[in-house]
């Protein structure tokens, strides 16, 4: 990393998920979260999987779909301040590799969670609700849409 060197991106928030090693770091972070939850003695395996899924999806929702703007000082702050990170990702182009990865990863985690909880109805309802809260905002039809005015400003 070159400290003090200007970057060429108008908004670095658009390309950060394509950085080298970002997907591996993301997967390792989810794995570490799961190992930490498994190491807590009074959590059963199904509870640890459900908590991993719910915490992951909550974090994904907050960081990708709730927080707006960019942490960088950018010339386009006027445009970027009204967009979530998901809407800024890859300059808003749909169906890129980063968008596909961040759409498929909660689905894979959901399948793993469902399998290890043995499809228990309580865990299944929690995990399905959690999955839907991160998948619905990712739909291309909802790009820039604020349902009921939530997160409008």
TrEMBL record:
Pfam family, one: ORMDL
The keyword Chaperone appears for this protein: no
Endpoints of the signal sequence: none
Subcellular location(s) of the protein: Membrane
GO cellular component: endoplasmic reticulum membrane
Transmembrane helix found in the keyword field: yes
Protein name: ORML1 protein
Organism from which the protein derives: Fregetta grallaria
